[in-house]
Amino acid sequence: MPTPTELNLHRQSRVLAVSYDDGSSFNLPCEYLRVYSPSAEVQGHGPGQGVLQVGKEDVGIDKIEPVGNYAVCLHFDDEHNTGIYSWDYLYRLGTEQERLWKAYLDELEKAGHPRKTRPS
Fold first, then answer.
1. Is the Cβ–Cβ distance between 87 and 30 less than 8 Å?
2. What is the CATH number of the domain that holds 42?
3. Where would you tag: which of 4, 18, 39, 52 has the fewest CB atoms within 10 A of its CB?
4. pTM for this entry
5. Is residue 100 a part of any domain in this protein?
6. Which neighbouring-strand residues pair with 9?
7. DSSP H helical ranges for the chain
8. CA-closest candidate to residue 101, choices 34, 7, 11
9. Residue 88 φ/ψ, nearest 5 degrees
């Protein structure tokens, strides 16, 4: 698995930029990272127990805390901070971003929670 070479939080645009040693780089929106948090609070404690996250359009990251040499803990401004984002998990979120984002939007719609859009 590739390892990260750079991690930059762009607070104003609410994007975490991650670059890896294989040359890949991803711009992961804070909302996307929040709704796909690897925490049990979001993923549940077993298959099929995930909890749909709603109203996270304006979430940001307050702090990034290293966890050993293998992960980071993201402290979101909605007080969520229990997910440990391994380098492998961040890489997966990057490589599967289009599919996972569409799946999230589809779930929101199916559950009757239209996503708010930010004013321009």
1. no
2. 3.30.2020.30
3. 52
4. 0.93
5. yes
6. 16
7. 30-35, 40-43, 87-95, 97-110
8. 34
9. -65, -40
Longest dimension (CA), the chain: 41
Compute CA distances 39 → 25, 27, 88, 120, whole Å. Answer: 24, 21, 15, 32
Residue 77 lies in a domain: yes
Inter-residue contact 29 to 18 (CB < 8 Å): no
Residue 33 three-state SS? helix
- Kindly state the tokens that stand for 78: 């909605």
Collapsed DSSP state (helix, strand, coil) of residue 28: strand
Q: Which residues pair with 76 in a beta bridge?
A: 61
Give the model confidence (pLDDT) of 48-106 as tens digits.
Answer: 889 999 999 999 999 999 999 999 999 999 999 999 999 999 999 999 999 999 999 99
Name the token pair of 80. Answer: 């969520």
Q: Is there a contact between 97 and 33 (Cβ–Cβ < 8 Å)? A: no
Q: Tell me, what's the pLDDT at 118?
A: 58
> For residues 67 and 73, what is the distance between their CA atoms, to the nearest angstrom?
7
Domain count for the chain, please give it. 1
| Residue whose structure tokens are 């961040």 | 90
